[in-house]
């Protein structure tokens, strides 16, 4: 069964919208989480939540940029390319977390750091509910 060209354009447009919605949801939730931690638990907690979220947000933004570029250039995504990009995203996230913990250990508020990570990772749920 073949998908018509009009359906392909509609799917592509919807996919682009959903990817953008995901990144926006992650940014907004990270901002709210960082402000929450900063107001109620102090500046270091707010910055720690921000740092934790950024360790997940930056790799996600790079992954989304890669997907959008592939969609624009080739109009077709390769399953193996997506798999390896996702693996790279996970590796970059882990490396950034390790570097953050290693070099900011003295000022890092670990529960807030983890909270920032969780908030960004759970933004997928918000984006799915909106879609």
From TrEMBL:
Compartmental location: Cell membrane
Any one GO cellular component localisation term in the record: plasma membrane
Record-given protein name: ATP synthase I
Keywords: Cell membrane, Membrane, Transmembrane, Transmembrane helix
Transmembrane segments: 21-43, 49-69, 81-101, 107-129
Topological relation to the membrane, as annotated: Multi-pass membrane protein
InterPro entries in UniProt: ATP_synth_I
Pfam families: ATP-synt_I
């Amino acid at each position: 069964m073949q998908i018509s060209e009009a359906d392909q354009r509609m799917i592509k447009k919807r996919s682009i919208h959903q990817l953008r919605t995901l990144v926006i949801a992650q940014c907004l939730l990270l901002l709210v989480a960082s402000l929450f931690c900063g107001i109620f638990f102090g500046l270091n907690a707010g910055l720690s939540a921000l740092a934790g979220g950024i360790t997940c947000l930056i790799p996600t933004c790079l992954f989304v940029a890669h997907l959008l570029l592939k969609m624009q250039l080739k109009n077709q995504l390769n399953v193996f390319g997506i798999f390896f990009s996702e693996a790279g995203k996970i590796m970059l996230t882990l490396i950034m977390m390790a570097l953050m913990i290693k070099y900011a250990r003295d000022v890092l508020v670990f529960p807030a750091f983890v909270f920032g990570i969780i908030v960004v990772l759970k933004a997928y749920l918000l984006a799915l509910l909106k879609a």
